[in-house]
Amino acid sequence: MPLPIPDSAVEERAGIRAGDHVGPTSGLAPGFAQANLAMLPGDLALDFLRFCVRNPKPCPLLEVTDTGSARPATIA
Asked: Do both 41 and 60 map to the same domain?
């Protein structure tokens, strides 16, 4: 039986970390963007940025941070 959809993305992340949800997470937090974080060496970052810009459907780019930034600005 699937788990109920949580009231917030924070609740969803907590449930996943606790092992309450196993499997695909797509669609579990309606209204929120789900993304992966890619951290690259500086010499590869521009090439990856170009790749994402040229392939926006499979590789949407949500944010680019300054070199050395520990946390994206969009994470609450």
From this structure: yes
